[in-house]
C-alpha cells in the first residue's frame, strides 16, 4: 500500500474528489474514482465518494494499493513439470500441457520459470525481465522438451544458435487424414490472421516458414507425423497442417473435427516436442534430450490405432 496525505490548496477548493486526486497525484480520473469507490479516500478523517467536493485546507488521505505486475515471475511448483537435465549452463525441462513458459498479460496459471524459481534453479538474467533465460518457447497447449539457459554465456550462445537454426527440434503430431505426399516440405509464409489477433495463417506477406514432415503411421482416421522445423514461427506446425487440410487432432482453433476430438477424449492439439538436439554452449558437444508422450496423447493415439 502507498499511503499519501496532502492538504487541499486554495486552487483546488470546490473540485470533485476524483479530479483533485488526479491533479495532485498524477493519476487518471478513472483510477481516482476507483480508489474512492473502494473506500481508500478520506477527507478530514471521513470516507468520501468520487463526486464529493474538497475544500481549502482539508486533509486528504489516500491509500493506493500497489498494482500487481502481470509479468512478475511468481515462484510456484507444478507437479507436472519434470527436469530432464541440469548443469551449470542449461536446464532442460519436460513441459506439460496447460503451462506457459513465462508470464504473459492475462495469464494467471503456472509457468516454467515460476516452477524453476520455486525449485531453486537460478537461470540467466539476460533478456526481458519476464523472459530471462528463455531461448525458445512452446505453446501453452503443446507439451514436450525445451531448454532454458542458466548462465549468461549459455544464453548468448543458445540465442544465436536458435537464430541460426542449428538446434534440431523434432515434433510428433497426430493429424487428420493422410498427407499427400506421405513425406514432404511445406514452405508457406505465416503472419497474423487478418481477423483474429490471437490466430495465425498462411499469408502472402507473412514471414518465411518451412516445415518438414514424414508419416510414421497411417491409420483410418489420422496419421502420426514426425516434423522438423526449419523456422520457428508461432503456431507454425498447427498453421501449416491446417493449411494442407490436415489439422492436428484436437485443435479447434485451426479447424479440427470436433467429433473426432471428442472420440479420442482430447481437448488440446495432439502435438508434442519429442526431441531437442543442441550444441552444448559450454562443452561444444552435440547433446540430445527426449520426452515421452504424455498420458492424454498416448491414450488418444491408442484410440486411433484401435479404430483401424
TrEMBL record:
Domain RNA-binding S4: 15-72
GO MF annotation terms: RNA binding; rRNA pseudouridine synthase activity
Class of this enzyme: isomerase
Pfam families listed in its UniProt record: PseudoU_synth_2
Keyword RNA-binding: yes
Residue runs in coiled coils: none
The entry's keywords: Isomerase, RNA-binding
Transmembrane segments: none
NCBIfam families xrefs: rluA_subfam
Annotated family: Belongs to the pseudouridine synthase RluA family.
Protein name in the entry: Pseudouridine synthase
Lineage, broadest ranks: Bacteria, Bacillati, Actinomycetota, Actinomycetes, Propionibacteriales
Amino acid at each position: 500500500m502507498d499511503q499519501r496525505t496532502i492538504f487541499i490548496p486554495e486552487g483546488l477548493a470546490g473540485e470533485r474528489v476524483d479530479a483533485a486526486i488526479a491533479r495532485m497525484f498524477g493519476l487518471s480520473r478513472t483510477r481516482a474514482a476507483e480508489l474512492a469507490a473502494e473506500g481508500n479516500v478520506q477527507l478530514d478523517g471521513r470516507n468520501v465518494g468520487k463526486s464529493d467536493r474538497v475544500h481549502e485546507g482539508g486533509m486528504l488521505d489516500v491509500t493506493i494499493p500497489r498494482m500487481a505486475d502481470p509479468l512478475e515471475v511468481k515462484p510456484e511448483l507444478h507437479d507436472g513439470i519434470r527436469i530432464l537435465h541440469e548443469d551449470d549452463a542449461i536446464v532442460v525441462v519436460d513441459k506439460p500441457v496447460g503451462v506457459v513458459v513465462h508470464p504473459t498479460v492475462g495469464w494467471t496459471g503456472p509457468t516454467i520459470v515460476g516452477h524453476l524459481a520455486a525449485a531453486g534453479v537460478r537461470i540467466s538474467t539476460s533478456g526481458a525481465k519476464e523472459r530471462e533465460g528463455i531461448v525458445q518457447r512452446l505453446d501453452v497447449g503443446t507439451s514436450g522438451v525445451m531448454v532454458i539457459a542458466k548462465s549468461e554465456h549459455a544464453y548468448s550462445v543458445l540465442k544465436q544458435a536458435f537464430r541460426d537454426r542449428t538446434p534440431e527440434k523434432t515434433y510428433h503430431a497426430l493429424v487428420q487424414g493422410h498427407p499427400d505426399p506421405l513425406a514432404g516440405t511445406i514452405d508457406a509464409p505465416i503472419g497474423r490472421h487478418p481477423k483474429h489477433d490471437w490466430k495465425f495463417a498462411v499469408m502472402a506477406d507473412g514471414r518465411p516458414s518451412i516445415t518438414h514432415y514424414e508419416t510414421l503411421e497411417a491409420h483410418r482416421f489420422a496419421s502420426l507425423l514426425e516434423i522438423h522445423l526449419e523456422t520457428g514461427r508461432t503456431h507454425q506446425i498447427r498453421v501449416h497442417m491446417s493449411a494442407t487440410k490436415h489439422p492436428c487432432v484436437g485443435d479447434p482453433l485451426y479447424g479440427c473435427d470436433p467429433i473426432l476430438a471428442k472420440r479420442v477424449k482430447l481437448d488440446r492439439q495432439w502435438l508434442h516436442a519429442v526431441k531437442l538436439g543442441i550444441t552444448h554452449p559450454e562443452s561444444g558437444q552435440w547433446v540430445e534430450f527426449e520426452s515421452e508422450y504424455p498420458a492424454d496423447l498416448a491414450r488418444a493415439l491408442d484410440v486411433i490405432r484401435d479404430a483401424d
